[in-house]
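Ticket reopened. Same input as before:
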Amino acid sequence: MLKSDRNILRGINLSLLRRCRAQGVMEHIMRLLLSAALLLLAGPVLAESLVTENLVHETMLDNGMKVIVKEDHRAPIMVSQVWYKVGSSYEPDGFTGLSHALEHMMFKGTESHPPGEFSRIIAANGGSENAFTGRDYTAYFQTMSNDRLEIALELEADRMRNLTLPAEEFAKEIEVVKEERRLRTEDKPTGQLYEQFTALSYRSLPYANPVIGWMNDLEQMRVEDLAAWYRRWYAPNNATLVVVGDVDPQAVFQLARKYFGPLKQEQLPVLKPLREPPQKGEVRSVIKIPANEPYLLMGYKTPAATSAERPWEPYALEMLVAILDGGNSARFSRNLVRGSEVAVSAGAGYNAFTRLPGMLTLDGTPARGRDIGELEKALREEIARLRSDPVTEEELERVRTQVIASKVFELDSVFYQAMEIGTLETIGLDWRLIDQYVEELKKVTPEQVREVAQRYLRDENLTVTLLEPLPMDNGKPVRSSTGGRHGS
Amino acid sequence: MLVMLLMLLPVQLWAAPAIQSWVTEKGARVLFVPAPELPMLDLRVVFDGGSARGAIPGVASLTSALLEEGAGDWDADAIAQRLDSVGAKMSASSQRDMAWLTVRTLTEKRALTETMDTVAQVLGAPRFDPLAFERNRKAMLVSLNHDEQSPGTVAQRTFMHTLFGEHPYAAQVEGTQESLARVSREDVIAHYKKYYVAKNAVIAIVGAVERAEAERLAELVTSGLQPGERAPELPQVSDLQASRTLILPFPSSQSHILMGQPGMQRGDPDYFVLYVGNHILGGSGLVSQLSDEVREKRGLSYSVYSYFSPMRRNGPFLIGAQTQNAKAVETLEVIRQTLARFIEQGPSEVELTAAKQNITGGFPLRIASNSKILEYIAMLGFYDLPLDYLDTFVDNVNSVTSEQIRDAFQRRIKPDQLLTVVVGDEQKPAPAN
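Engineering reply: fixed in the latest deploy. New output:
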């Protein structure tokens, strides 16, 4: 088991799962998503048989639903994912958390299947299923034996249009969502800090709001709000079906036509193009909450692949981040964790593949006996060096090689392969980018890395949030009912 | 259409991967599954050298952390550079039973050579440099502090420490403030010398290489190890003699509830019966009894689950949930009642059938990737389970009866010998804002 990266929560969409058996499930998904950010870099020397384009088949149903199939015949299984173009970044003020709450309610019954039956049918067919909501998407998946695809598709098609949203189910489920928020955010110092940081960073973009929603909005949410949200976004022409596994593409298309084909398309709302106004100065805040360790999170506004004026820039930024934090030999580990020993951990994150422009983030925890101010200074010095000196060819070559290897490694997971396709399609890009990315990455020069550092990694474009711990006052048992003792 | 959904298709036959096994010259056992489809290789070396073997809490984890910090002629930077430059990923970690090192690399010649040479040095000639030791020791202290910000982690660690009492499993894997203050470099070296030896190791390999190459790699990565001896048997875990409840105050909006007792061990005669039974009780996500009672019917918790964690000796049987402080008492009561009813009545035939369908129908998913196969064979090798474990898995699950489940739960799970840990803020209701 690879150790999870501590920067997982930074440069990527914070996705929420409807269920977690133990908390590790979430971390697992987050790891996948982190690699999603990093691994969308693709490989230049891959064998032809591993190139995505040679394995993918796509079609468009008459009602505007896109179906993408990727063959992977290593084992007799498949994953089926339905992606909707809606997430927290679509939500208006006062309605934050709607997409995620609706995701929970998608398991609460349709006209033909009562609450909970969806999960029972999938389980009885040997499947595992879940759903996740991010800033830019909501997605539902089933991983099953390859002969069960029809069951997954029939059920997904049913709940795309026929959800009943019973009020009494909503009353219970919104409490579950609030518990989820308490678990992930209220009782987690870094979770609170991350939420404050994003709220402070964005002046206009809805990325300012948490995916799970503000507690106030969860308190005010009504089932009618969900019904309207569902009607607005859950339509075949706003969805993509991705199936990866040991399947015959033509057979998948046929099943998709059978179950999703009859669904009526909808007039979708026209999205206004959103842009963050230029930031005019560094923004700082200090969050004082009960915690044991200080923590630092910094973010520079950056372009995304969906809207960059200079299309090479997102790739240069991906390269820049990998040079700082792409492995144990990258600059942060070498210089800050080992070298000067100022950090116990230091990370960098950037995701080129978001619907709206996001941030390049840096974060870290100071080493014992070192001040958080020293850590901030050290991180800023690393950024200053990127602005002044070109990175070395050796560093670029190291990243290229890692990317090629990662590209192969990712093929070990059908789930990941489907995630990659679904993410790109849902933010408005083309899955072919998975292969093209490689060429773009290969073209990045040391001068381009310096140029994006100079253009975006500037103080007036920066938000800094520090966690200053207050005492936690915890530890000793207050009460211990007795009778218990170990026998020998 | 409804009929089609409810009518279950027969389970496909799907052969488990054939596991090849042998012993290296120095005495390490190897389990190998060829996987020619992707040009990559996963290799894991597992030692019986986890925290249960540590003379001081945290020494096993510290040993794991220091492996990549310098070996033979290479310092930490050189090791990192060697692996990163060929895109390989390596990590090392310890739990209670196992201490392991895992690596994933391309099978392209240069990548495979650089990676495996590095692994051989890291396992066979770690330096344990004093400066690296000190930096990692301090990093573990920071990490410990960080973990203790989480009520869930505090609950989990308190539970395990209390559950295992005097048993070596009670030692905290991550160490404690006290133990990390006194652990020395010599302790790490002693731990390494005693447990990182060939006869105490199991090597799992999955990837696109031939048997001969797998044999060569297994010899290579153990070339620097002493033959040594297998670690001695661990003592049995004692049952709790009575129920006990620990309540720890914590400045959180939720209370984290854990309840359980020592459960079962790997190879336990009741393994499949308890496994299938727990699947119904709290091991199958939203369709489990616990999830239905706590989450679906009452909206009390986002996550509620139960599991057996079988280890070399009886690992924990554990039920967990989190809820706003004001609902902690109610949640605890629902969990208690659900468990008591399950022990008394066992599952219904409908529940048992659904559980078997889920487990056996999902069997192909368990072995659908190299990383999952690696996990399985490393576990099988480490715990000396039969190599046909996966071949017989479906039959073993299918043969479980509801009467067996009721009987096993009544024999094994004692409602009057449960440890309950609650970490939260009793006085503070969740913010209503």
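Chain B touches chain A through 110 residues (CB under 8 Å). Chain B has two domains: 20-221, 244-424. Please confirm and we'll close it.
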